[in-house]
Write a structure and sequence with these properties.
The protein is α+β, with helices and mostly antiparallel strands. The protein has one domain (about 20-160). It has helices spanning about 5-15, 25-30, 40-45, 115-120; strands at about 55, 60, 65-70, 75-85, 90-100, 135-140, 145-150, 155-160. Strands 1, 2, 3, 4, 5, 6, 7 and 8 form an eight-stranded antiparallel β-sheet that branches. Strand 4 and strand 5 (about 90-100) form a beta hairpin. The longest helix is centred in the N-terminal third of the chain and has 11 residues, at about 5-15. The chain starts with a helix and ends with a strand. Residues about 5-20 have low confidence and may be disordered.
């Protein structure tokens, strides 16, 4: 095949090759109830089902951002937030739910679901290395995904975000 024809075929194929594959697709597509990673603090606050208390902001060396949480204990919801400045607008970086919370993931898994249900729902996204039977189910990865904490075969906590840095 002539070299110029190979070059033309290569250039035509470029639009179908992703420049940077998404390393954490679950963070883009998953929700925990009405909450999702990346939304504004104002939008998330407006959807909290009960009053929340904000923790103090502290800078994290891992990303250089100011982190804090909105803790809504009465409804079992904690929102992790981050801002590039100490007093600036923040965005949601994690969501966690535990009892008495009843928020479900996009695939219907909530506190009280069985380990088998979580495994079945997230089979295609399962992180086999991080998942420990009877303890934790990880979908996506610990660096960006869902973590289902388990006790006695049941989900006790659902976390969406980066559980490790």
């Amino acid at each position: 095949m002539p070299p110029c024809l190979l070059t033309v075929l290569w250039v035509l194929a470029l639009p179908w090759v992703p420049a940077h594959p998404d390393p954490f697709p679950l963070l883009r597509t998953e929700r925990l109830g009405p909450f999702h990673v990346g939304e504004s603090e104002a939008d998330a606050r407006a959807r909290l089902p009960c009053p929340a208390t904000a923790t103090s902001r502290e800078i994290w060396g891992a990303d250089g951002e100011w982190h804090f949480a909105l803790e809504a204990h009465a409804c079992g919801v904690t929102l992790g937030l981050a801002s590039p400045t100490p007093d600036g607008p923040a965005r949601v970086v994690s969501v966690s739910v535990e009892a008495p919370g009843d928020l479900a993931t996009a695939r219907g898994i909530r506190v009280g679901a069985s380990e088998a249900e979580a495994l079945r729902a997230y089979r295609s996204d399962l992180d086999a290395e991080a998942t420990r039977p009877g303890e934790v189910v990880v979908a996506g990865s610990l660096y960006g995904g869902l973590v289902f904490s388990l006790r006695d075969g049941k989900v006790t906590r659902v976390f969406l975000g980066a559980a490790a840095e």
